[in-house]
Amino acid sequence: MATGIRILHTGDLHIGMENYGRLDPATGLNGRVMDFLRRLSEVVDYALENEIDLFLFAGDAYKSRDPNSTYRREFARRIKRLADGGIPVILLLGNHDLPAQERRASSVEVFRTLDVPNVLVASSERLHRITTRRGETIQVATVPYPLRQRLLAHEEYKDKTIAELDALVQDLMADNIRALAEQVDPALPAVLLGHFSVSEAQYGSERTVMLGRDVVVLKSILADPTWDYVALGHIHRHQELNRGQSPPIVYCGSLERIDFGEEGEPKGFVIAEVQRGRAEWRFQRVNSRRFVTIRADVRDESDPLPALLKAIAGQEIADAVVRVIIRARPEQEGLVRDADVRRALEAAYYVAGINVEVERTYRQRLGGESPEELTPAQLLRRYLESKGTPPDRIAVLMQYAEEILETFF
Description:
Strand content: 15-25%
Largest sheet: 6 strands, mixed
Number of helices: 11
Structural class: alpha/beta
CATH topology of the largest domain: Purple Acid Phosphatase, chain A, domain 2
Shape: globular
């Protein structure tokens, strides 16, 4: 890599995810919560040991907007290690960090309240001049997650539909990003740090954990040579959107797997070396918990158990979250004993499910997909379709459903 300002770019930690976990007796916390905290420790260790100049956290520290005090403490401990090591940290607000009400404090506001040295909480669209660990200056424009609710505070927007509000927010974000670019000093390196969805990005399982609908920013708005590097959070799948062109537009991805939808995705963070006019970057993998799906088709077997055990033996399941999906004939369903399968899975960290799939009419309504692979909105749509609901009625019901999901999730 070329010599430049060394940036570590990470985010989407979601501390508090407890699915597929069990109690960790050493800490008293859910074991999956500890997985996420261990990944952050791994990233912090890397930053301290590899002369990182600036640490960018691209939003979503916690799963919920109101994490408990233990989760806040554990996150703060790790961020303080960076700050004490002289590495400036920027904590951008993501949708999971933002308070449900406008005037309430965000989940990371305590760092600003206590004026923690070397830690900047970025809660607004603003261009910051940051002095790095080695004393160099870099410009970082911060763009937190956009909130439609802010428009509703203005009388002229109260009668707008959700689609109209989304279009307004998208236009405002584009204007604000352009305005930030106009403030950049062309003599200094410049980074855009944002938490939002971008056109052409590939979504992962974050669709099941996001709070509310997304406003999408056009990639063309970000592909501006004013920026030397665009650091993004919000989408859990690591990807670069500008096809190797300058500037790199990079989603760091999440540090841990949320569910089986992320089974095959590499997890890690990004190291970027930024100079004025260029940036080089690479993806650094972390030791995330493996998710393993074992599929066994035993429909041609007189005794399904040996074939199933052979399929299990062919997979590396030690310390992994494992699910088993068995395709069987109706008459075989009772021959697959749960206790036998679980004995074969003893090396796994957690058995998420042993599902025997027998071809029946009700499964065809899901288009061949398993219910656990669908989001609540997708399940509702499939249900309405299976009941023969007219398409225009489905569209109306889905619009109301999205408003409800946004309110409560």
